[in-house]
Design a protein that fits this description.
Blueprint lengths: L11 H10 L6 E6 L5 E7 L4 E6 L8 H15 L1 H9 E7 L3 H6 L20 H13 L3 E7 L5 E2 L6 E6 L11 H15 L8 E4 L9 H7 L4 E6 L9 H20 L7 H5 L4 E2 L2 E13 L2 E16 L2 E8 L7 E7 L9 E2 L4 H9 L5
Parallel strand pairs: 3-4, 3-5, 5-9, 7-8, 11-14, 11-15
Antiparallel strand pairs: 1-2, 2-4, 6-10, 7-9, 11-12, 12-13
Bound molecules: zinc ion.
Length: about 375
C-alpha cells in the first residue's frame, strides 16, 4: 500500500496528497463545493455496465472508510482481479462529501447540519451535490460509508462491532422491498466472507425508518444501499485493522455484486447477524471506593475517550461516563487499594471525579 498515516485526522489536504500520489487525474473531478467552497472530489473507475456509487466522510470525523477507499483503488488498479472488476463495474467514488467537517474533524458540516439527516430536505450544498451525482449517474448500488464509536458491541456480548452494516428500510413498515433485499443479501455475503473471532464481531444496525437518512432515502427510491460502519477493533484506536476489514468488505461487496452470487444468500442470513448494542465503554475501573449520600461503598466506573483535534492530531481525552452496571469496558483496570482512604464523591461533577481517578491510575 502507498498510504501510511498513523492519525485518525484525515483532512482534505491529506486526501489531496494521497490522490496526487496515485496519479488519478484523468478521471478525478470536482463534482461540487461545500458551504465553505472546498471542492468535493469524485473518481470514476471501470467501464462496466453495473454502476456503483460510494461516498465517505459525510461525517467529517469518520475517516477510516476514506482510507479504505484509497486501498480499494490500489487493489483495483494493481491486481488482476481488480482489472476484471473494472470491466464489470463502473464505480463512482466521492471522497469526503463533507470536506468542511473533515477539516474540522466534526460530524456536522460548516452549517452545523448532520448531512445524514438532510436527504429529504436537501438544504445543504453537500447534499445537493450528492443528489445531483445520484440523479445523473443513476447507480445500481450505493455504498454509504461511515465510522462508529467504540461503544458498539456485536449483539449482547463483549465483542466490539469492528464492522456494522445496515440495509436501510424503505418505509416505516420496514418492508423488504426488492432494493432492500439486494442490500440484505449483499451484507449477508460480505459478513460471511469474514472470519470473526473471540476478539471482534460484526453487528447489524437498527433499521428504524427515517427518510431524512441518505440510505433510507435511496432505498425508498429503489436503489439498493448499504450502510458500512467502521468500528473499533481491540487496542486499535488508529483503526488500522478496521481499515483492512472495511477494505476487504468493500472489495467482497464489489465482487459479489458483479458476480451475482449474493443471490445465494437469504434475508434470514442478514437477520442472523447480531443487532448492535451500545453498552461498551473504553475503560472499566473496578473496586472504586465512593461516598454516596454519606455511605462508603464500592463501585465500578466507566471512562470514555473524547476525540479532540489538537494541532493536526486527534488526542484521546478520557472522560468519566458513569457507573451503569449494564456497561462493559474494553479495557479493565482495578483501582489500587490505597484509594480506599480517599473515597470519591459520586455526586461530584464528572471532571472532578476524573481528576480523582487520575491520582491513582494512569488513563
Ligand atoms: Zn456517520
Amino acid at each position: 500500500m502507498i498510504y501510511v498515516n498513523n492519525n485518525r485526522y484525515f483532512p482534505p489536504e491529506a486526501l489531496a496528497k494521497e490522490l496526487a500520489n496515485r496519479k488519478l487525474s484523468q478521471r478525478l473531478q470536482t463534482v461540487g463545493y461545500s458551504h465553505e467552497k472546498r471542492p468535493i472530489l469524485s473518481l470514476d473507475l471501470g467501464s462496466g455496465p453495473l454502476k456503483v456509487l460510494a461516498w465517505s466522510q459525510m461525517h467529517g470525523n469518520e475517516t477510516t472508510t476514506t482510507k479504505a477507499l484509497l486501498d480499494v483503488i490500489d487493489y483495483l488498479k494493481t491486481t488482476h482481479e481488480g482489472a476484471t472488476l473494472q470491466k464489470a463495474l463502473h464505480l463512482k467514488l466521492i471522497f469526503q462529501l463533507n470536506p468542511d467537517g473533515s477539516a474540522r474533524y466534526t460530524r456536522i458540516n460548516a452549517n452545523e447540519v448532520d448531512l445524514n439527516r438532510d436527504a429529504k430536505a436537501q438544504s445543504q450544498p453537500e447534499m445537493k451535490v450528492l443528489m445531483e451525482v445520484y440523479n445523473t449517474f443513476n447507480p445500481d448500488l450505493c455504498l454509504n460509508l461511515h465510522g462508529q464509536r467504540t461503544i458498539f458491541a456485536a449483539g449482547n456480548t463483549k465483542l466490539p462491532a469492528s464492522l456494522s452494516f445496515l440495509a436501510p428500510a424503505a418505509d416505516p413498515e420496514r418492508t423488504i422491498t426488492p432494493a432492500r433485499r439486494v442490500a440484505m443479501q449483499l451484507i449477508a455475503r460480505i459478513s460471511g466472507q469474514h472470519t470473526t473471532s473471540n476478539v471482534w464481531g460484526i453487528g447489524r444496525y437498527d433499521d428504524s425508518f427515517n427518510i431524512n437518512c441518505t440510505g433510507d432515502y435511496f432505498t425508498a427510491q429503489g436503489t439498493p444501499t448499504i450502510l458500512f460502519e467502521a468500528g473499533h477493533y481491540p487496542n486499535d484506536y488508529m483503526r488500522k485493522e478496521t481499515r483492512k476489514l472495511v477494505t476487504k468488505s468493500i472489495i467482497d461487496c464489489l465482487k459479489s455484486f458483479s458476480a451475482g452470487d449474493y443471490n445465494n444468500n437469504t434475508t434470514e442470513d442478514y437477520f442472523a447477524i447480531p443487532a448492535n448494542s451500545n453498552h461498551l465503554r473504553d475503560i472499566e475501573i473496578s473496586n472504586v471506593t465512593i461516598v454516596n449520600n454519606k455511605e462508603i461503598t464500592k463501585s465500578t466506573f466507566f471512562v470514555q475517550y473524547k476525540e479532540v483535534l489538537d494541532n493536526n492530531e486527534i488526542i484521546f481525552t478520557p472522560e468519566f461516563d458513569g457507573s451503569d452496571c449494564k456497561l462493559s469496558g474494553l479495557k479493565k483496570i482495578q483501582m489500587p487499594e490505597e484509594q480506599e482512604k480517599y473515597p470519591i464523591n459520586r455526586n461530584d461533577f464528572a471532571d472532578v471525579i476524573m481528576d480523582s481517578l487520575k491520582k491513582f491510575i494512569q488513563l
